[in-house]
Specification:
- Helices cover about 5% and strands about 65% of the residues.
- It is mostly beta strands.
- Among the domains are: about 20-95, no CATH class; about 100-280, no CATH class.
- The protein has a 24-stranded antiparallel β-barrel. A two-stranded antiparallel ribbon has the order 6-7. A two-stranded antiparallel sheet has the order 8-9.
- A hairpin with a 6-residue loop joins strand 17 and strand 18 (about 245-260).
- It is globular.
- The chain starts with a helix and ends with a strand.
Length: about 500
Amino acid sequence: MKKIGIVLSFLVIICLNLFASDNLRISGLNEAQYAHKIVKDSLNNFFYDGFSFRLDYNDFSFGMKFIAELPKYDKFNSIDKLKSDNISYKWDERFLSYKTDNFSALAGTFEEAFGTGIVLRVYRDEEFDIDTRLEGGLVKFSPKNWNLKALYGALPSEYNYMDFFGVEHDEYDIVSGIDIETNITKFIKLGASFTSSRIFPQFAMEEKHIQQEILGIRALCNLKWMDITSEYATSKKYKLIYEPSQDGTAVYSYLNTYIGKFTISSAYKRYKNFDFRMNDLPTVNHSNEPLHKYIAPGKDEEGIMGELRFVPNFSNEFIVNYAEAWDRNLPNKSRLKDFYAEMRHDFENFSITTEYSHLDVNDKDSGIRKKELTPSISVDFSIREISILVKAEYQCIEEVDFMEEYRHYEPLLQTDIGYKNISLSLVAEYSYKNWDDIWKRPLWLGGEIYAKILENTELRFFAGKEKGGEICKNGICRQYPTFKGIRLELTTTF
């Protein structure tokens, strides 16, 4: 007991000295959300709170994030009754780091990317429910013209192991990697990456892991009139369950050329047997749409993209983008075509932006063909201190699902009004198949109020119905699920 008192006294003295120091900085974020979801056969009230803080003292940093969900909100499924599994509270992030001018070391939860991300990218995207962050160690060293990275970490596997007695055991995927980049000249950089990972497979009948090794090389060139990035990687999987080994390759290249007031961009991708959980393969199209719905992007995919951007002056901008993607070796040939055009003109007191997108995905492996044609126009203007945005969109969607064809139309009308620290966004969306059906379909009508109630506190309140997908409200674009009810968000920084 006496020893515990001595330790506590020592910790108190350290804390008092830190708080009295001018080198100690404390920052944090608290995100609270309440949602009342109107849906049958489900719970209606959901609470979420995420609290994170960071302590910086000289070259050291320490941070943690705690998340409580009562119950955990499921974006896609209803929860008929409250169970213990639905209540979630956890330490979502913990790290301790040390950083100087050319050296840094971190232990805990981290995100990182090697090169363009085809060899490795571990990150979190809450909107798409992606979390491949690692728990482990990360070291960076930058002597003169070199940049070195080394990491080792683990994350929960997508699948668990069930033994002979039906007991489920948690499994973890493990990865280690190193990345090297150097400046050859003032304009050229060369880099190389290597990762070795141990992945728990989906259909393992015993505790057997897949081993995967990826080696990548890249080159970057930045000149006054152009910049180019190219990366090539090879993958080798072994210790597979049903085959001895599997080799894969990935190629990605991106080029920007600057000619006067024109910017010409082009990109190319080629992925073959290159599916890896802890990377992020570029889709190489404006819509960020994958070629296949049920097949991993790296399995078999090739594509190109070209973009022309013309900015003759500060008042005008023109963009044209076109991309195609296809597979080579799969039995059913799939194809994707994506076209996007934008024109903006600023008048003296207002601006007009017109957009048109045409997406055509023929995914023969899933038996789905989808076409989306979306013209839109938006007007942005101000009346004294009030800023107003009006947007109109008319989307036509055609789908063929196993020989059955569906076609419907989704018009949208949106108005955003802002005054000082308060803004209001009203969105009305509709969906109908034909003119006889136009008065029988429901209307998605919702409004969101944004207010900066304190210097460090923001409030968002939504009421109504949302169709889902990417929705831009009050200057923020997010991916939303289909929702009906009210939602209150409170964000505080310190």
